[in-house]
Amino acid sequence: MTLTTLDPRTALVIIDLQAGIAGSPQAAPVVARAVELADAFRAHDLPVVLVNVVSGAPGRTERPRPAAARPEGWAELLPELGEGIRVTKKTWGAFHGTDLDERLREQGVTQVVLSGIATSKGVESTARSAHEHGYNVTVAVDAVADTDPDSHRNAVERIFPALGETGTTAQIIDLLEATQR
């Protein structure tokens, strides 16, 4: 883990921890760590962004997509995440087609810490876009998960270090406490 610093105006961005995606038992540790991070960010009056997804990008793919409409409540953010800036997306990444960049810049944010599901889709796409928008990027590697272990490992070991820094939830909270005094 290479985490070195957190900017004075760092935002936590929690991706797709919603009823239809994060309701499985394997998601429980990610949700618990995201809640820990959110509580720590709020304690320092730093922005917490809660991102949900309501659909997929319209382009063709080789993998089949759900043909039926999503069930009622599928896109509802998990209540244990609390309150924050809400962003609804229709693609994997939280920046494309949303006002996330504008909302972060309005608050003077220069760095984002990412948590959520799925590592190789929503989290990675958001990390790539945050990097391209000029934000310092940190990924809480124990607060992300993916249904594909190889894709998860690739993102954590190869992609995220090229886009920013990585650290555990505990390391991020410790650094947050040290830099926000």
From TrEMBL:
Record flagged with keyword Hydrolase: yes
Domain Isochorismatase-like: 10-171
UniProt keyword annotations, A-Z: Hydrolase
One Gene Ontology MF term: hydrolase activity
InterPro entries to which the protein is assigned, alphabetical: Isochorismatase-like_dom (IPR000868), Isochorismatase-like_hydrls (IPR050272), Isochorismatase-like_sf (IPR036380)
Source superkingdom: Bacteria
Protein name: Isochorismatase family protein
Native source species: Microbacterium protaetiae
